[in-house]
Design brief:
Layout lengths: L6 H10 L12 E3 L5 E3 H5 L4 E3 L2 E5 L6 E3 L12 H20 L15 E3 L4 E3 L1 H5 L7 E3 H99 L1
Antiparallel strand pairs: 1-2, 3-4, 4-5, 6-7, 6-8
Helix pairs in contact: 1-3, 3-5
Amino acid sequence: MATKPSSGLRLKLEEQLTCPVCLDHYTNPKTLPCLHSFCQHCLEGLPLDKKNETYYLSCPTCRHRTKLPEEGAGAFPVAFHLNDLKEMYSLTKKTADLSNPQEAICSDHGKPLELFCETCDTVICVTCSFRNHKHHEYDLITDSYTKHCQKLRECLSPVEGKKEAVKKVLSALAEREGEIRERGEGVLEEIHEMVEEMMNVLRESERKLTEQAKRITDDKLKVLSEQMKSAEMSLSVLEE
């Protein structure tokens, strides 16, 4: 028998399919350049900033400022991955209902709920099948459950491939981050060494200029002292 879909998976899908603005399932989801997604009508309701005849909106999640297309929010890329998740969520819900129907007996006819109406997405009894669901597409719950589980697996298969691709991208980005950090640290070290070298040159220049200034000052003071002594001697002779 096929494995029942995990309630944990449904909860995760439910969370992924909830728009952070309206807190409801996405309706016509659009993706912003910052890669956060929102309902189109939620984006259309966001406040806009205008600069030089151009309108901008801020992402409600990360506050990244994005230019609004001339055609409006509807021109942002469609979030196809969310549409895929919506289909997956629908399949997990169906398989969950089929594997564990809430009511084992039909409340209208008192008969076992052993059929699943594909047209109405609900479990029904035999009487329902030829009364309320006449001409609808339905099958035994066990057969329908197996079929939907297979569809779910087919739906999950490309998701697994995408997940692996995303993992590779994340790994490459992490590696790139390490390279950037390492290069940044190297640049900082180079700057430190360059500044230290410049400081040493300046200190040496300061020492030489100080010595030169002191020497010139001493020489001038020596000359001045000799001139003063000569003048004093001349004054002494004149006074005699």
